[in-house]
Amino acid sequence: MAKGTNDAQLLVQSLRKAYAATPTSLKIIDLYVVYAVATALIQVAYMAMVGSFPFNSFLSGVLSCVGTAVLAVCLRIQVNKDNKEFKDLPPERAFADFVLCNLVLHLVIMNFLG
Amino acid sequence: MAKPLVLHLLLLLICGSALLSSGSVIHPISDAHRSAATEFFVPAADGSFGSLEETYEALRTFQILGLDRSSAKFEGTCKTVSEKLSSPTTTKDLYHALKITAILGCRTESIEFDGITSRLQTAVKDASSLLELYYSLGGLLTVKEQGKDVILSDADGTFQAIKALSQSDGRWRYDKDSTGSSAFAAGIALEALASVVSLAGSDIDQSKIAVVRKDITKLFDRIKHYDDGTLYFDEKNVDPDQYKGPLATSASITSGVTAFAAVSSEKLNIGGEKILGLAKFFLSIGIPGTAKDFFYQINSLASLENNRISIPLVLSLPATVLSLTAKDQLKVEVTTVFGSHAPSLAVSLLKVLTPDSKEVTSFEKKELEYDPENRIHFLDLSPLKIDVGKYSLIFKVSVNDPEGADLYATGDQIIVTAFLTGFIKVDKAEIAVSDSDAASESVQKLDLSKESLISLSANHLQKLRLSLQLTTPLGHSFKPHQMVVKFRHESKVEHLFVPETSSRQYKLVLNFLGLVEKFYYLSGRYEIELAVGDAVMENSILRSIGSIELDLPEAPEKAAKPPAQPVDPLSRFGPKEEISHIFRAPEKRPPQGLSLGFMGLTILPLLAFLIGLLRIGVNFKGFPTSAAPATFAILFHGGIGAVLLLYVLFWLKLDLFTTLKALGFLGVFLLFVGHRTLSYLASTSAKQKTA
After folding, report:
1. For the complex shown, is ipTM > 0.85?
2. How many other CB atoms are there within 10 angstroms of residue A59's CB atom?
3. Distance of CA A35 to the CA centre of its chain
4. What's the CA angle centered on B593, arms B587 and B598, to 5 degrees?
């Protein structure tokens, strides 16, 4: 079993090293995604504790987190230089899309929040 | 052979029942009529009552009833009437104007009677219709009665002209051209003929008058009758405009016939009973409903009062309810139709009949005594020993003077309904509660004359017995119209029972065992009320006897519920019951602390994010440094911040429309600025790449 844990540790370390190589901008985006998901999880835990009233507020909160995470993931895909599909797309343009979509998402969310 | 006999018997029965059936109550004209007349005929400010005809009718009614005609108002009438007489008017107006002058006794100096007479005489000559002749002849007669000298030039010709319009059945036509004849016209024609005879200078041929007498007899063959001996004339309603109705037709014929009888030397062949029948018809109207009907009634009765055929005498009872307790006397009045006194008469009570037309055998024919002071015939009832009840009294009136018997019409048998009331004794009133095996009874005597109330108690296994006897003043057993015993529970549920009668006693037996369901299983205090009533009972009973405590078993589940008691109808305007609204219970909210705690917890990831950013080594190196792009960059970030602020405001207080409006402006601005910034950044990074 010591081998098992050793292997796991080795795996984690290699992952860390690989991850350290990613560009900063992508790391920022990853952190943002983690932040959004963590907020969503906290909201779900709250709902689990006190019940789903008012349901619309819960949905809007969770969906805003999830939505913005999704958009961030899309941005990451588009900005990643290693991604051959989006080679010709300037990252600023992707960022502009990200901002616009977020703004629309948050308008809808604010309306649904109640 | 049998058939004609049967028919005869039938006819006899019909006639007999017609004679013996009781009729409407008839009273002679009294002060009630006079006061009604003053209410009906109300003159306008100038003293007229509407048209000239209506004024004449009103004044004639006042004259007959003896009402005041001398008021100052009528001076104006005199003036209007005399103006009418001077100006050219119709014959009808002339006739009415002359009549009014005669009734009011107006000053006649200013009236030119010669001119009027000549106008009327021309009218008589040129008359083409019956009404023209009637009015002109009537006018001439009135002028003659004023004292002027009037002679009808061609009396025979006029008589012939009127007679020519007669029909074979005794009726008259209105003029030569009309085909329909009417009885109303007959009355008018007879009155016109009487005027001709009065106005004639030389006597009219008696044979002509005899022919008219025959016509009158034929006319009276058409008379109709009601069951109680009332007679009247009527016609078929062929033409609604021409139809006058029974009152007008009878009135017209009465006036005509009495006028003609006055001028005919020989007596008319009309029986006294016909005159009496007509008088009864007019009197049975009572007080008429319209002014015209009033005039017809009063005018006809006036002509009957002093007619030459026979004067009708009317028998009436001032009181038809006589009390045996008060020892009332049977009082009878016999007067003319206007209530003036009759000649010396003998009134006898022939028979007394019970409501089922059986004769009271203990009664023999009695003659009533006469009280000359009050002009009343009376009879003491107590020695007659007639019991309480409703009776038909049959009277006969006969004139004492044998010569006078022809002058007056008294009728054959006169039937009047009377009530004899008395005090009914209640005997042997008892109420008792007994066990079902009738072993023991607790009897209590009821004394209905005292105010005492009894109180009993019973359970559902017992019986209640209520019995009493009712006796008339003469000692016979009495059967009232109504005897009801009512049991009323405290909750106002009522039950009614009718005692049964047997020989002399009324008995009510209630077996509570059988009545448990009827009483809706309601135990408690029941009030007992007794009601005994009858038309001839002077001491009808409606009172509470007492109360009974009833103990009934419990109601089974399926028992009928007692009926809902009527609610006071005004209570629905009172305050209604309070409505307690049930609102949606608000959702259980978590405690405030918990919610705030979690809000704090949500902020944590944000802090973690910011710390993480710092750890990664985020920097602002890419921020443009030169002026214009920097402004744009700042504006870009500022724009995004403004939009987010707008969203916060939207959540807090704005509505969607305002937000969208603001968002529109901001969005356009942001697009522009963003485009500038990002394109600058893109160009910079492109330069970096190539460089």
Report:
1. yes
2. 17
3. 7
4. 90
Burial label for B621, CB within 10 Å (0-12, 13-18, 19+), is exposed
Q: Using DSSP, state whether B343 is helix, strand or coil.
A: coil
Closest residue by Cα to residue B398 from B344, B351, B340 = B344
d(CA B103, CA B99): 6
Q: Do B613 and A31 touch (CB under 8 A)?
A: yes
Where residue B170 falls (left for φ over 0; alpha for ψ -120 to 50; beta otherwise) is: left
Q: Nearest C-alpha of chain B: how many angstroms from A32?
A: 7
pLDDT, one tens digit per residue, over B147-172 is 888 877 788 888 888 888 888 888 88
Name every chain B residue with its beta carbon within 8 A of the beta carbon of A32: 609
Closest CA to B314 of B24, B522, B51: B24
How far apart (Å, rounded) are the C-alpha atoms in residues B632 and B675? 9
Report d(CA B240, CA B219) in Å as an integer.
Answer: 22
Give CA separation, B65 vs A71, B103, B292, B299, in Å: 117, 13, 15, 10
Is pLDDT above 70 for B20? no
- Looking at residue B336, the DSSP 8-state letter turns out to be E
pTM above 0.95, yes or no: no
Partners of B425 in the β-ladder: B471
Secondary structure of residue B5 in the 3-state scheme = helix
**Distance (Å) of CA B147 to CA B31, B114, B162, B638, B691:** 34, 12, 26, 130, 157
- Shortest CA distance to B275 belongs to which of B218, B189, B337? B337
Identify the three-state secondary structure at position B467.
Answer: strand
Which residues does chain B have within 8 Å of residue A46's beta carbon, measured at their own beta carbons?
A: 598, 601
CA distance linking residue B287 with residue B68, whole number of Å: 20
